[in-house]
Amino acid sequence: MSQTLQITEIFHSIQGESSHVGQPCVFVRLTGCPLRCTWCDTEYAFHGGEPLTIEAILGQVQSYECPLVEVTGGEPLHQPGALVLLKQLCDAGYQTMIETSGSFDISAIDPRVSIIMDVKCPGSGMTDRMRWANIDHLSEKDEVKFVLKDEADYEWSKDIVQQYQLGNRCTVLFSPVFGSLDLQLLAERVLSDKLPVRMQVQIHKLIWDPETRGV
Do residues 29 and 72 lie in contact, with contact meaning Cβ atoms separated by under 8 Å? Predict the structure, then answer.
């Protein structure tokens, strides 16, 4: 597998999502994604980027002196060399996460990595790209994220959580598209339906302007 990856950006910020929300984190954003979700907020990562060796990537990560690292995209697994990067980050002692769309096989990811896997709701326009077999490879250290565009997405997600008993397998995140769903309404629905989920908002978009890159 390639030892060079196409990189859009590497930056140090506050983790805006997941169960690590609020923690300092280094983000390694890989270039490229074959999906086109309707609500995507990282379209700038579809193309371009800079080729970097894994050694150079690790050097930049090390410069931030932060133990938590997330490999993201785009879709990081679109580049096979991402698997090598993940392993080497773990070998270097980093608490390593990957955020992936759910459309690529996750079975070969180093078992030390915490996987944050999207489950694509109908509002994304990409439900047909889901690789449902990935659910069998999730464990309690992992997370699944439902990005909710509207109430129909909520109802669909509720059924999926129940169908696959996701609350018994890993952390389940319900994440409304920024500025789309009414947060109070979503919170009240989660409470009334007694769902085993964690509601989250993208706090980096509350701290900085939502269009700001590198945060």
Answer: yes
- What ranges do the domains of the chain cover? 4-207
Segment 50-76 mean pLDDT: 97
For 137-154, the pLDDT digits (tens) are 999 999 999 999 999 999
The dotted CATH code for 4-207 is 3.20.20.70
Say how far apart CA 55 and CA 58 lie, in whole Å.
5
